[in-house]
Amino acid sequence: MSSEDETGAGEPRRPDYPTRAREAFFGRLKGPKLRPHQAALLEDLLPRYRLDLPPQGEEVSTDRLFAAPVTELRLEIGFGGGEHLFADAARETGSGFIGAEPFVNGMAKMLAALDKTPLANLRLFQDDATQLLDRLPAASVSEIDLLYPDPWPKRRHWKRRFVSETNLDRMARVLKPGGLFRFASDIESYVDWTLLKTAAHPAFAWTARRAQDWHQPFPHWQGTRYEAKAIREGRRPAYLTFERMA
Question: Which parts of the sequence are annotated with region: Disordered (predicted)?
Answer without folding.
Answer: 1-22
